[in-house]
Design a protein that fits this description.
By secondary structure, this protein is α/β, with parallel strands linked by helices. Helix content is 45%, strand content 15%. The chain has an eight-stranded parallel β-barrel with strand order 1-2-3-4-5-6-7-8, surrounded by four helices. Strand 6, helix 6 and strand 7 form a beta-alpha-beta unit. Helix 4 runs parallel beside helix 5 and helix 9 packs across helix 10.
Length: 271
């Protein structure tokens, strides 16, 4: 089993606190850490601040998120050079959402992610992209998302990281769809530990993700019971995905390590 983690720039700008959470999980030898990038470039400086903190404290490979929304090609070129100056040569290429919630392409930028990937490859970057077990809220459906994934792959992306999903049926459909469309892209499954079930449901609603009732029903006012349920859910999900042939897992950490440590500690005993 191969791992990676996602972190985001903290509002309070305590970068060291985020790095410290990573250091607790470093023993599992993650392939990389991804650093998110805010809507409309609002957190560019914060993202770079967090990247610098990781570079100063660890040797882990950094993959920086880069969104195309609200940016001209000139804006993106400048950001690429800034990333390279920090020693970052890998990016997750994303469309991104505007602050108003509705996507509008920059007139001097990109209208789709596949063209964005092709542009990034011209700078010698290794490019990762997103994949969706359940359709993206703005997409025309599952097949539309699969076709876009194929276009992004043909444009030069080498790995796709899935949105988090709690439906193994949807994951199976994604895996089968990638195979049928002969998409030559390494699939990494996104895993979301459940720290707070209500917060997760709110986030999922915005992303068009279904949280099955049998998962929601496992949570109550008992925090110890909730933590146990969260660990069990993640472990079962990872094992189910391994049975489908997935061996790369990307944890959406929410800048926290506690549940992930419990999950990985238990998995290491049962692998």
């Amino acid at each position: 089993m191969k791992l990676s983690y996602e972190f985001y720039p903290p509002k309070e700008l305590d970068y060291q606190k985020v790095v410290n959470e990573f250091l607790l999980m470093e023993k599992y030898a993650p392939r990389f850490v991804s650093i998110t990038y805010g809507a409309m470039g609002g957190s560019q400086e914060k993202s770079e601040g967090l990247i610098k903190a990781f570079k100063e404290n660890t040797d882990v490979d950094i993959v920086a998120h880069l969104t195309l929304v609200g940016k001209s090609k000139g804006d993106i070129t400048k950001i690429i050079h800034e990333f390279k100056s920090l020693g970052v040569n890998k990016v997750v290429a994303l469309r991104g959402d505007s602050l108003e919630g509705k996507f509008e392409a920059h007139p001097e930028g990109f209208f789709n992610t596949a063209d964005f990937v092709k542009f990034l490859k011209e700078f010698g970057l290794e490019v990762y992209v997103s994949a969706y077990p359940e359709p993206h809220p703005d997409s025309e459906g599952f097949d539309f998302d699969l076709n876009l994934l194929k276009e992004k792959t043909l444009a030069g992306s080498s790995e796709c990281i899935s949105q988090f999903c709690f439906s193994m049926k949807s994951y199976k459909e994604l895996i089968d769809g990638i195979s049928k469309k002969e998409i030559k892209n390494n699939l990494t499954a996104g895993i979301m530990p459940i720290y707070n079930i209500q917060s997760l449901c709110n986030m999922a609603a915005k992303c068009g993700i279904n949280i099955p009732s049998e998962i929601i029903e496992q949570f109550s006012e008992d925090q110890e019971q909730n933590d146990r349920a969260a660990v069990n859910i993640c472990i079962k999900q990872i094992k189910d995905l391994q049975n489908m042939g997935i061996n790369n897992f990307h944890f959406y950490t929410l800048n926290q390590s506690s549940l992930i440590l419990k999950i990985l500690d238990e998995l290491s005993l049962t692998q």
